[in-house]
């Protein structure tokens, strides 16, 4: 170990308590990154990860306060590309920023304004799911004849995205980083990446190249002929078309990462293809083929740390008087205002936009409900799992999934876990023509009062808050 590293580590130990030394940024990490492209630093990184994990277990047991660690970015050199996917060498594979420890700290519960905003967007999605593309376009502001988007994998590459394979730890779903293996097994779907013999394709889609020229100095020629700078946005996702499962693991969009460049990338240079739902579609269609293109059953969103989403989840849990628990967690149907509110959160809306914007290719899908659960990570962060099915009152697309995606077939394996009534199609989705808008008029009792209260607020105060169209 270099002498300077030992000296600075010693300074850290003398200035900080054991807890702070492990979990606050030390002087030797001023660059906030470690280059593990050499064997020595690769082994050092693994050692730090193991030590931090062991220390966390002891600290959690003793009740010590945990302090968030600085993210450690792993920089590697990736030598070649095959089939459009950048392939790492066997020594050091690409990995996202890894938080050694990030204890979940709940923000205050969402206020009425945030709940209303998310509810109205979720309700708009729910209404748009069951109509055709033209009618769905009229529901957004400004109204449009179509909400369709259809970016392909090749178009994504033209916007300077690079697809990287990830390392074994990042694609290990039982790891303390994701902690979702039990949930996948309960649903009887694959819990392993293709590299380990499973069915999940795990990639990091990165805007700009991680190897070669410094990201701040890179430029590219966009499809419109303009010269732009990459934002550094990235999307770590897993796709399993065979079982109908999408997993959103880590997303840092252009609006966030562009500000981390030096100088920041202005908004007029952001790529046209930048929304989470667009990248999901490009990656899904890259690996799905034939009937599996329409085989949707679940969309998992893992280890959520978006503050607005956390606020909404906390308020929903407190209103129901329950704690955040591991799978099977808490099932909330879309016939419930809380379910619609979760669908409209910053993390949930990518699911809504995905199916609203791809009706022409898929037909009408809708969200049956959402499971709120705790990922089995070292920091116990929440996850959302949206259950997906074809809308039963519409003509299916030409290429249906192998099961037809009816609610019973899509989730039969999970009924014993979540209960026999969990996946009953919402009653407010009756049999109706595609062009007919179906209002929520048959939700009774307290639920109807809750809807009425929200809808009155939306009609009186929501125009300047909710009616602006936001693409995730």
Short note summarizing the structure:
By secondary structure, the chain is α+β, with helices and mostly antiparallel strands. It is built from 16 helices and 14 strands. Mean pLDDT is 72; it is low at 1-45, 53-83, 88-101, 394-415 and 422-472.
Overview of the structural elements:
- With 472 residues, the protein is α+β, with helices and mostly antiparallel strands.
- The protein folds into two domains: 85 residues, no CATH class; 350 residues, no CATH class.
- The chain is built from 16 helices and 14 strands.
- β7 and β8 form a beta hairpin.
- α4 runs parallel beside α12.
- The chain starts with a helix and ends in an 11-residue tail after the last helix.
- The N terminus and C terminus are likely disordered.
Net shape: globular
Unreliable stretches: 1-45, 53-83, 88-101, 394-415, 422-472
Mean pLDDT: 72
Order of strands side by side in the largest beta sheet?
3-4-5-6-9-10-11-14-13-12
Could you list some keywords that capture this structure?
16 helices; 2 domains; 472 residues; 14 strands; two-stranded parallel ribbon; single chain; alpha+beta
């Amino acid at each position: 170990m270099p002498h300077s590293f030992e000296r600075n580590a010693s300074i850290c130990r003398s200035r900080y308590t054991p807890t702070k030394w492990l979990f606050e940024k030390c002087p030797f990490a001023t660059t906030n990154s470690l280059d593990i492209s050499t064997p020595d630093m690769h082994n050092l990184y693994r050692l730090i990860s193991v030590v931090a994990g062991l220390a966390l277990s002891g600290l959690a047991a003793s009740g010590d306060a945990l302090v968030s660690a600085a993210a450690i970015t792993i920089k590697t050199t990736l030598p070649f590309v095959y089939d459009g996917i950048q392939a790492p060498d066997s020594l050091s594979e690409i990995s996202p920023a890894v938080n050694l420890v990030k204890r979940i700290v709940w923000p205050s519960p969402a206020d009425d304004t945030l709940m209303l905003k998310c509810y109205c967007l979720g309700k708009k999605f729910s209404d748009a799911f069951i109509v055709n593309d033209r009618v769905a376009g009229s529901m957004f502001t400004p109204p449009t004849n179509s909400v369709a988007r259809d970016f392909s994998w090749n178009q994504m590459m033209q916007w300077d995205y690079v697809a990287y394979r990830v390392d074994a730890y990042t694609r290990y779903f039982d790891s303390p980083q994701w902690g979702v293996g039990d949930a996948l097994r309960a649903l009887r779907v694959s819990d392993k990446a293709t590299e380990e013999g499973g069915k999940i394709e795990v990639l990091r889609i990165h805007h700009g190249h991680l190897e070669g020229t410094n990201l701040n100095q890179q430029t590219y020629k966009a499809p419109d002929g303009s010269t732009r700078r990459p934002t550094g946005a990235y999307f770590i996702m897993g796709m399993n078309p065979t079982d109908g499962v999408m997993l959103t693991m880590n997303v840092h969009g252009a609006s966030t990462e562009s500000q981390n460049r030096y100088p920041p990338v202005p908004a007029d240079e952001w790529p046209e293809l930048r929304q989470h739902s667009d990248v999901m579609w490009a990656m899904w269609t890259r690996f799905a083929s034939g009937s599996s293109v329409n085989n949707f059953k679940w969309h998992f969103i893992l280890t959520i740390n978006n503050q607005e989403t956390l606020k909404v989840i906390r308020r929903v849990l407190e209103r129901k008087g329950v704690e955040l628990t591991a799978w099977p967690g808490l099932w909330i149907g879309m016939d419930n205002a809380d379910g619609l509110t979760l669908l409209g959160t910053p993390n949930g809306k990518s699911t809504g936009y995905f199916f609203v914007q791809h009706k022409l290719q898929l037909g009408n899908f809708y969200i049956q409900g959402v499971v709120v659960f705790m990922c089995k990570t070292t920091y116990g962060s929440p996850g959302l799992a949206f259950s997906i099915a074809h809308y039963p009152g519409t003509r299916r697309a030409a290429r249906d999934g192998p099961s037809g995606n009816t609610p019973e077939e899509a989730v039969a394996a999970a009924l014993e876990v979540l209960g026999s009534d969990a996946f009953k199609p919402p009653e407010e989705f009756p049999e109706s023509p595609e062009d007919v808008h179906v209002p929520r008029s048959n939700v009774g009792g307290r639920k109807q009062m809750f809807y009425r209260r929200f809808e009155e607020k939306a009609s009186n105060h929501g125009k300047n808050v909710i009616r602006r169209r936001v693409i995730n």
